Amino acid sequence: MKYAVMLSLLLFSVAQCSNELVFEEQYYQKKSNLNCTDNCPSITVKIPIANGIPIVADSINKKVFLVLKQIIYFGEKPYTSKDYTSLLSSFIDSYEKLKKNSQTINLVGKER
């Protein structure tokens, strides 16, 4: 009986320590602060975050971040963001700067 209990506890503890790679989805969103009434610029991303096997999960998560960073980049200098929240903020900030510059150019062009 004693061995049966020990064997059951051992099997139960091994079952708890499975080495599975699990993905969970996380959402990130950022909206522009520019004054707008309709169709305000925003970005929303749904990211698969790997968990389970630390070395593999970390490698996958870093690669996904780098790919998204390349996809949403526009401008002269690459974004220096280290997380999704700051990456989306950089993207919206770039848009807002572009929008303000284009409005300034339009105003200057109308004065001539």
How would you portray this structure in words?
With 112 residues, the protein is an alpha+beta fold. The protein has 3 helices and 2 strands, in the order αββαα. Strands 1-2 form a two-stranded antiparallel ribbon.
Keywords:
single chain, 2 strands, two-stranded antiparallel ribbon, alpha+beta, 112 residues
* Class inferred from helices and paired strands: alpha+beta
Distance between the termini: 96 Å
Largest sheet, described in full?
2 strands, antiparallel
Task: Kindly estimate the percentage of residues that lie in beta strands according to DSSP.
Answer: 15-25%
Kindly report the average pLDDT value.
81
Strand order of the largest sheet: 1-2
Rounded Rg: 24 Å
| Count of distinct strands | 2
Unreliable residue stretches: none
The DSSP helix count reads 3
Helicity, in percent?
55-70%
N-to-C order of helices and strands: HEEHH
How would you describe the shape? elongated
Please outline what is shown here.
Helices cover 55% and strands 18% of the residues. It has 112 residues and is of the alpha+beta class.
What is the topological layout?
Elements: H1 2-16, E1 22-31, E2 42-51, H2 54-72, H3 84-111
Antiparallel strand pairs: 1-2
